[in-house]
Amino acid sequence: MSVHSTYDALRHFADSWGLAAMVVIFLILALWPFRPSAKEDNEAAANMIFKGDDNGE
After folding, report:
1. b/e string for 23-38 if b means 16 or more Cβ within 10 A?
2. What's the rounded Cα separation, in Å, for the pair 15 and 18?
3. Angle at 19 between CA 17 and CA 25, to 5 degrees
4. Is 56 among the domain residues?
């Protein structure tokens, strides 16, 4: 296999299956926080900045 054909094979893979894999990974990571079982963790993270807050007293 020559260098030119290796390049063509890798480029073809990146243009087809590589792109599809990146889209799938992006969708998984983008939707991960919205899964129903993450509600408790999301609420804890949202309220973490108020933990130990004594209203300036």
Report:
1. eeeeeeeeeeeeeeee
2. 6
3. 100
4. no
Reported as a single tens digit per residue, the pLDDT across 3-37 is 678 889 889 888 889 889 999 999 999 999 999 99
Considering its fold, how many domains does the chain have in total? 1
Instruction: State the DSSP code for 53.
Output: -
| End-to-end CA, the chain | 74
Q: Is residue 55 part of a domain?
A: no
Contact (Cβ atoms closer than 8 angstroms) between residue 33 and residue 42: yes
State both tokens at 49: 């900045």
In a domain, 24, yes or no: yes
Residue numbers of the domain that contains 31: 3-50
